[in-house]
Amino acid sequence: MGAEITRADLVRVLHTVAEVAAAASHDPALSVHDETLLDEAGFTAQRPKATVALLSSDLQMRELVRLSLTVNAAAERLGVSPARVRQRIADHTVWAYKSGRNHLLPAAQFTDSGTVPHLDKVAPLIPRDLHPLSVHALLTRRFPELVVDGAPASIIQFLSASAGSADDITAVEHVITAAVWESA
Fold first, then answer.
1. 39: CB partners within 8 A, 6+ apart
2. Which of 39, 78, 79, 173 is deepest in the core (most CB within 10 A)?
3. Whole-angstrom distance, CA of residue 109 vs CA of residue 119
């Protein structure tokens, strides 16, 4: 039996491997032509760092999928039919992404008995073409513009603590707009 390794442990190991590989690189120099071809194809000269980023992203996506609810599980949590959940997905009042042929709904948008308060008012503001990890980060990252009890809060925390006033929704809308512009 081996010891359990956490995602954080693996990321630290991969960062160390990338640093060691970068410091002790023995890659032969490429011709300008080969370098240009690789650059145009999207390959980077810093392969260890790119590999670490790719693996980290893959691990984050696997964790998001693992923690997400199926349509049936979301319906059970909300006390509605799966058809109603699919309707809410179509109406963009909950956030879902495709995994194969199925929709998955990230757990961050749910409470024990429903959805995060007022999420239905801001979910339609989130562009549907964003990557699921970008949307998850958008909803769970703390922003200085959103404050709960004097501290920066995530959109989820802010909505959970807010009264859902027009000003509250506008504040979240501004954060979403800025974050989308920043990522473009």
1. none
2. 78
3. 7
Structure token pair of residue 30? 């490429």
d(CA 94, CA 101): 18
Per-residue pLDDT in tens (0 to 9) along the chain, 184 residues? 455 667 776 676 666 666 666 655 555 566 676 667 667 766 655 566 677 777 788 889 999 999 999 999 999 999 999 999 999 999 999 999 999 999 999 999 999 889 999 999 999 999 988 899 999 999 999 999 999 999 999 999 999 999 999 999 999 999 999 988 887 6
Helix, strand, or coil (residue 97): strand
Q: Measured between alpha carbons, how far is 13 from 36 in angstroms, rounded to an integer? A: 31
What residues form DSSP beta bridges with 148? 151
